[in-house]
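Page header: ASSEMBLY MODEL / four components / 346 residues total.
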Amino acid sequence: MNMTAQRLMDLAEAHIRDSGYGGFSFRDLAAEIGIKSASVHHHFPTKATMAAAVAKRYGERFFTSVALRPNESAEDAISTYRSAFRAALAQDGRMCLCGVLGAGAGALAPEVAEEILSFFRRCIDDLSRRIGGPGAEARAFHVMATLEGAMMLARAYRSVEVFDQAVASLTLS
Amino acid sequence: MNMTAQRLMDLAEAHIRDSGYGGFSFRDLAAEIGIKSASVHHHFPTKATMAAAVAKRYGERFFTSVALRPNESAEDAISTYRSAFRAALAQDGRMCLCGVLGAGAGALAPEVAEEILSFFRRCIDDLSRRIGGPGAEARAFHVMATLEGAMMLARAYRSVEVFDQAVASLTLS
DNA sequence: GTCTATAATTTGATAGAC
DNA sequence: GTCTATCAAATTATAGAC
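Prediction written out in full:
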């Protein structure tokens, strides 16, 4: 994976998080880095292939950023996830990539839909283990739903404070 | 607003809730009711106009369905909202229209974005009043975020049970 | 209110030269 | 790895007849 491919993925990720799968074209990306759309097809054969690759990389980065820390409590784990989403929102005012794609999932190519589902499964699995105890999975679903929904609301309101208000009660402390 | 216009809005609403703003074209809608796309423009001058009209009607229906009932508690109000979203999801397996459009808000026409924000503002305003007391607004944001996020997750998982797990803890009882 | 016809643009994708 | 050239299809939208 060379530098051009990485720059293309960076741009695609930004566009998807802003406007969804339909929010960019190969021509857009090409123009933004000064090449032609035909050259983009050299790096990614189809748009769906590219979107799936972007989603996969997004997940890898995310799970690195929320990696388990020693001796953490359930509240710590939830705080870690909350901080990760908040940072993404505050940094560039954009949604979670998987949240955007998941919302309009009806028209997604199978390979992209799979990657999105895989991301959420892994979030729930990881969070459930780190929360632990009875009802851990339900709480994990609750946390993920609230974080994704809060990002969406914050985007509609164009206000990070909306995110903070919505997610404040996720932890006890 | 005649019958053809209503059928067009029904179809547009279903498509948007399934696949977002880019999930339908005037040709699609026209073909589904057996007319031509040029005729759709007679009822709605532009696609953005139509989407805004659909979002407005969606909001009106929603607020009718969650209308305040006498002597309700805060928990009752939250249950009412939860039931409304759950019914929409269980009925046709689709997202909240405003949630889908809100997620990919970066590319929305101003008139549509306004309608979406107006929907959420009205939800928060209504819920806050019915919840009441200190922290009512924050709780309203929390409830709305969780409900929207839970719909999105349920869609990715293709499972209504995911919705139920995610929203179970919104009420105490 | 619906039609035919069409314009103007964009899109995802391919072939083949360099 | 990037280019030119091009394709086939789809999209939003308009003009004007019936």
